[in-house]
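User: Hey, my collaborator sent me this sequence without any context and asked if I could get a structure. I don't really work with proteins. Can you help?
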Amino acid sequence: MTFELAYKNDLEAVYDVVQRTIKEIYPKYYPKEVVDFFCEHHGRETILKDIEGGDVSVLKIDGQIVATGCFSGNHITRVYVLPKYQKKGYGSFIINTIEGRICEKYDRVCLDASLPAAALYEKLGYRTIKHEKHFLDNGVILAYEIMEKELHKCPTDINYDGRRFVPKMNSDNGEVSGQTCFIYHQNGSLLWAEYSGGEILKGSLVGTVKHNGELDFVYHHMNKCMKIKTGKCHSMPAVLSDGRLELSEKWEWTCDDYSKGESILTEMSL
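Assistant: No problem. I've predicted the 3D structure and written it out in structure-token form, which is a compact way to encode the shape of the chain:
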């Protein structure tokens, strides 16, 4: 799985993701006039303009574009995941990644939330600051929420000792899951952890903590097939609105096919 900038030759694939998602999902929530409005609003010309501005990224699985995310300034403007790939954590991953980019220049992020997406944004810490209406043909009214979230820059004095994390998203080629629990320990810049659960019988990792809280470590575990797997990982922390940490990770197997992947770990409730 990769999340990377979109280029002009990705236009049709991005357009297809957006249009297919709108036409399959939105009729469950909106009348035809609203669905048509969204399809027209996210047309080829608009998407191409955003791509040319460097604002569009795409999520690829096995080289296929299955989702897209777009932002301008501190405004997230277009996040769509093909219906087949929804409810797997990809939408949250895209939002979290975009927030990390926005956080470099802004302390708040905003977006316009459609009915299908509002619940997800609420779970990610967004709050409604305004109710808006857009008047369409035949007297139809499109109601939507303007939502906002305060972004917290990661402090440089994070201590991971005693913190517990569970994955909420992982690439298909990974082995940890929501049933896997990581228990972290720290002594100075030295970091280590044990993990188990799901497909993992027993695993451990060891690495270092940078001054900005980022982690570099190697890991190994025994899975239920009694096979030892090894890898390396770079992890970037973010502070959630409730004070818990979330780790965005890029990892690589150092065995078998040496494939790469990405995951998100969320700290268990304090």
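In plain terms: The mean pLDDT is 91. You can pass these tokens on to your collaborator as they are.
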